[in-house]
C-alpha cells in the first residue's frame, strides 16, 4: 500500500512538471524512482505532500478515527483522558454510560483484548505511517533539502513521527529500560515487525526531533496545529527526561521557556477572572492546539463532551470527571487553581478550568471550544524538575517561584518554595505538576519518569482508596489482540 502511495505521488509530480530533459535522458532508468527524485519533486511541488501532513493534524482530533461507534475514540485528547485516569488524579466520579469503566477500574490495562489498547496502538502507528509517507516524499530519512518549504514539511513530519513513538514508549513500557524490547520499528527504510529494544526507539525519537529542530529553525507558522521549533524542543525535553537525561532535558525545556510564550495569566487560570486560558487556541501560553470551528461539526463525541459540564454530552449527562479529592485537598485555599473545580451540582468537576463560555449546563451542542496539546507551563515544571535532579536547586526554586507567583501570590510562592531541598523539593515539583496540568494528559509522564505510586481518593467509582505503583501492570496498556493476531513476530508472551 505504501509503495502505491509513493508511486502515485511520483506520477503526479511528473505530470505537473512535464517532460524536461532529465526525464528524456536515455541512459537513465526512468522506471526507478530514487530518493533524489523525491527530493527534487518535493522541492518543486511541496503542495503534493502537504495534504498528508495536514491529515496528521486532522487525525489528532478525529473522533472514531480507529473504531466506529466508540465514543472514547477521540484522537490525542481521548488518550489524554485515559492517561489522566491512570494517574488517579482524574476521577470517574459518576458512571451512567460506562465508556470509561474499563480504564477507571484498571481492567483495560491488564486485558490485551480490551478496545482501549487497540485504539491507542492503532492511533499512534497510523501517525507513524502517515509521517513515514511524508518523509519518503520529502526525500527520505537522510534528506537535507534546501528549500524552506520542504525543510518545514520534513521537519514537521519527523516531529510527528517522534511524537507518536514517544507516546508509545510511555504507554506500553512500564519504566525506562533501554535493553527491553518494547515496540515494532518502522521508519520507512527499516520495517521490523518484532519488538526492538527501547534504546532503538528512543534513538529514532531523539534523531527525529534533533533534525526537526534544525529543519524548523526560522519557520513561522500560520496555525497552532502546525508543529514548529519550540514544540519539537518540548517533545525532546520530555524524551530526555523519560530517559533520565535531565541535563539535556533542562537545556531543551529552557529553550522552550525562552522562545517567547508567556505564562498563563492569573485571570486566565479560572473563571470568572478574565475568562479561561483553557478553551481558546489564541491563549498566548498555548504552544500547540487545534481551533475547533462550527464547520468541523464536532458534537457529542469529543473531548469537551467527556470533560465539560457545559457541553451537551457525557460529562453533563452522567459520566462526570472530577479531580481526585485527595489531590484537591492538597491545593491551598489561597491558590487560584483551587477555584478551577466546582462544588454543589458539579462536585469537583473542572467547571472553572474547562468550560464553554456560555456556561449553560449541557448548553454547547456544536463544539467550538478549542483543544490544547501543549502549553509553556509544562516546561517550567520540567525545567525545575531537571534542575533539582541535577543538583541545581537554586535554579529549580527560581523557576518554581516564577511559575507559582500568579497562582499563590509572590510572597506565598517564595515562602513555600524557598525552604525546600532534596526530596522535599522534588516532591513539591511533582505535586505542582499534578495540580497545574490536571486534565491535560501530561502528569502521566511525570508519574512514569519518577516511578511514583498512585493512591486514589474516595470520590472514584472504582477502586477508591487503593494504591498502585507506576510500574505495576495496571499503569501501562497492553499490545492489543489485533496486533498479536496479525503480526507473527509478536506473541502475547513476549
TrEMBL record:
UniProt cross-references to InterPro entries, sorted A to Z: SusD-like_N (IPR033985), SusD_RagB_dom (IPR012944), TPR-like_helical_dom_sf (IPR011990)
SusD-like N-terminal domain span: 108-220
UniProt-listed Pfam families: SusD-like_3, SusD_RagB
RagB/SusD domain location: 345-494
GO cellular component annotations of the record: cell outer membrane
Keywords: Cell outer membrane, Membrane, Signal
Keyword Glycoprotein carried by entry: no
Xref: Gene3D superfamilies: 1.25.40.390
Signal peptide: 1-18
UniProt keyword Membrane present: yes
Localization per Swiss-Prot or TrEMBL: Cell outer membrane
Family that this chain belongs to: Belongs to the SusD family.
UniProt protein name: SusD family protein
Organism annotation: Winogradskyella thalassocola
Amino acid at each position: 500500500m505504501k509503495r502505491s502511495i509513493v508511486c502515485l505521488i511520483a506520477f503526479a509530480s511528473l505530470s505537473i512538471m512535464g517532460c524536461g530533459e532529465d526525464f528524456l535522458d536515455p541512459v537513465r532508468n526512468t522506471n526507478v524512482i530514487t530518493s533524489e527524485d523525491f527530493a527534487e519533486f518535493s522541492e518543486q511541488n511541496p503542495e503534493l505532500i502537504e495534504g498528508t501532513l495536514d491529515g496528521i493534524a486532522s487525525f489528532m482530533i478525529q473522533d472514531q478515527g480507529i473504531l466506529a461507534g466508540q465514543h472514547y475514540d477521540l484522537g490525542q485528547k481521548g488518550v489524554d483522558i485515559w492517561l489522566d485516569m491512570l494517574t488517579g488524579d482524574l476521577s470517574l466520579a459518576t458512571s451512567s454510560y460506562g465508556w470509561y469503566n474499563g480504564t477507571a477500574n484498571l481492567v483495560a490495562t491488564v486485558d490485551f483484548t480490551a478496545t482501549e489498547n487497540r485504539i491507542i496502538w492503532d492511533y499512534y502507528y497510523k501517525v507513524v505511517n502517515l509521517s513515514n509517507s511524508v518523509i519518503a516524499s520529502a526525500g527520505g530519512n537522510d534528506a537535507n533539502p534546501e528549500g524552506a518549504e520542504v525543510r518545514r514539511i520534513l521537519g514537521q513530519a519527523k516531529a510527528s513521527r517522534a511524537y507518536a513513538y514517544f507516546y508509545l514508549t510511555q504507554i506500553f513500557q512500564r519504566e525506562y529500560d533501554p535493553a527491553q524490547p518494547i515496540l515494532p520499528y518502522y521508519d520507512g527504510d527499516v520495517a521490523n515487525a518484532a519488538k526492538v529494544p527501547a534504546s532503538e526507539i528512543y534513538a529514532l525519537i531523539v534523531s527525529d526531533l534533533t533534525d526537526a529542530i534544525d529543519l524548523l529553525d526560522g519557520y513561522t507558522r500560520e496555525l497552532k496545529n502546525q508543529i514548529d521549533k519550540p514544540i519539537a524542543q518540548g517533545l525532546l525535553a520530555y524524551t530526555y527526561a523519560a530517559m533520565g537525561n535531565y541535563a539535556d532535558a533542562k537545556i531543551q525545556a529552557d529553550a522552550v521557556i525562552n522562545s517567547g510564550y508567556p505564562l498563563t495569566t492569573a485571570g486566565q487560570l479560572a473563571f470568572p477572572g478574565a475568562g479561561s486560558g483553557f478553551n481558546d487556541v489564541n491563549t498566548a501560553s498555548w504552544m500547540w492546539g487545534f481551533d475547533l470551528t462550527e464547520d468541523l461539526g464536532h458534537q457529542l463525541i469529543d473531548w469537551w463532551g467527556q470533560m465539560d459540564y457545559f457541553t451537551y454530552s457525557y460529562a453533563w449527562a452522567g459520566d462526570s470527571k472530577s479531580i481526585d479529592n485527595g489531590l484537591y485537598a492538597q491545593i491551598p485555599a489561597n491558590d487560584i487553581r483551587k477555584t478551577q473545580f466546582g462544588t454543589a451540582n458539579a462536585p469537583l468537576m473542572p467547571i472553572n478550568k474547562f468550560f464553554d463560555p456560555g456556561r449553560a449546563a449541557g448548553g454547547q451542542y456544536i463544539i467550538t471550544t478549542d483543544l490544547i496539546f501543549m502549553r509553556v507551563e509544562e516546561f517550567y515544571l520540567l525545567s525545575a524538575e531537571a534542575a533539582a535532579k541535577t543538583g541545581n536547586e537554586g535554579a529549580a526554586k527560581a523557576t518554581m517561584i516564577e511559575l507559582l507567583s500568579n497562582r499563590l501570590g509572590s510572597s506565598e510562592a517564595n515562602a513555600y518554595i524557598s525552604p525546600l531541598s532534596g526530596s522535599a523539593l522534588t516532591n513539591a515539583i511533582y505535586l505542582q505538576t499534578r495540580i497545574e496540568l490536571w486534565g491535560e494528559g501530561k502528569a502521566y509522564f511525570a508519574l512514569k519518569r519518577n516511578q511514583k505510586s498512585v493512591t486514589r481518593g474516595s470520590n472514584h467509582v472504582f477502586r477508591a482508596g487503593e494504591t498502585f505503583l507506576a510500574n505495576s501492570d495496571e499503569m501501562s496498556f497492553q499490545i492489543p489482540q489485533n496486533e498479536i493476531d496479525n503480526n507473527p513476530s509478536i506473541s502475547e508472551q513476549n
